Amino acid sequence: xxxxxxxxxxxxxxxxxxxxxxxxxxxxxxxxxxxxAAHAREMGSDPDREPPFYFSKPASALVPSGSTVPxxxxxxxxxxxxxxxxxxxxxxxKVTPEAARAAVWAYAAGLDxxxxxxxxxxxxxxxxxxxxxxxxxSAVITELVRVSDTGVLQGGTISLAVNGVQxxxxxxxxxxxSVPEIVANLSQYYHLQPxxxxxxxxxxxxxxxxxxxEISGHIDGLPPLSLRIGxxx
Length: 233
Description:
By secondary structure, the protein is an alpha+beta fold. The chain has a single domain (14-230), classed as Fumarylacetoacetase-like, C-terminal domain (Fumarylacetoacetate hydrolase, domain 2). Helices cover 15% and strands 34% of the residues. The protein has helices spanning 37-42, 97-101, 116-124, 130-133, 147-150, 179-186, and strands at 14-16, 23-25, 28-33, 53-57, 62-64, 68-70, 78-80, 82-88, 104-112, 114-115, 139-141, 145-146, 157-162, 165-171, 196-199, 207-208, 214-219, 225-230. Strands 3, 4, 5, 8, 9, 11, 12 and 15 form an eight-stranded mixed beta sheet that branches. It has a five-stranded mixed beta sheet with strand order 6-18-17-13-14, with no helix packed on it. Strands 10-7-16 form a three-stranded antiparallel beta sheet. A hairpin with a 2-residue loop joins strand 13 and strand 14. The longest helix has 9 residues, at 116-124. The mean pLDDT is 95.
């Protein structure tokens, strides 16, 4: 029986896949916080005492690399965070890192865009980060590249520039939790499924952007990332 809706349902969020006409349908976006020690210290935390943790964004926050996004409302401190993104390709629940490795289907380069002033206010008051992290067009992503074409990424340069000036530079090997460890740890809390994306954290060097700024990002072996910041709506 076909279903009738009062209003048309939202379009299914999805990501392009290199070398395929088919797209990867996205159901959930998980994000790892403070997964690079230098960034944890940059944000005032101690990575030796406080392990990485998770927050989420709605799948509707996805926006493809190459887009122009308006400067978001409610903030005066809009930040970039350059990240490796994992796409899950098999169901996993309460698995070891060795078993988790087989569930990683593809990678992309991504940006976790953040309203930093709202995040600071939420942290100071012990409140959730939703308005700081989960807003429209805050999850930028390139096309996905399948693991069969890259292998499991254990290292490689990750960098970001604003208007041609480098702001972030690190190595995937610097992550506190590796790719298999992230998937294994997250699987202790969720039944991970195809359609789940995981943004794996950012190196130090985060900072603010303004309308007219051009962001470019690089991760070895993955498509280049670009984003232009437009005027506010």
